[in-house]
Design brief:
Elements (H helix, E strand, L loop, with lengths): L2 H12 L3 H5 L2 E2 L6 E2 L6 H31 L11
Antiparallel strand pairs: 1-2
């Protein structure tokens, strides 16, 4: 493995939380399940891209949900203080 590939592998590993580094992940292109230390650099990149896409999808869904909630009229009527 070249130095560049080693650095790439270390970078992709460092972007994961400790829990994510230890649990198995499914590689999207192959369907294989591996832990981070068993993955090739290409698999780690692919997994990182899949996580980033999911995060973007989750963010979009959250924004849509918040917009829908904001559009609803308030459910609680506040008393007027005099």
């Amino acid at each position: 493995m070249s130095t560049r590939h080693s650095l790439d592998a270390l970078y992709h590993m460092s972007t994961l939380s400790t829990e994510d580094r230890e649990r198995p992940h499914t590689i999207p292109s192959t369907g294989a399940t591996k832990t981070v230390d068993e993955m090739t650099v290409r698999e780690a990149r692919e997994q990182a891209e899949a996580r980033a896409e999911k995060a973007e999808d989750d963010y979009g869904l959250m924004c849509d949900t918040l917009e829908a909630v904001r559009a609803e009229p308030p459910r609680v009527k506040f008393p007027i203080f005099s």
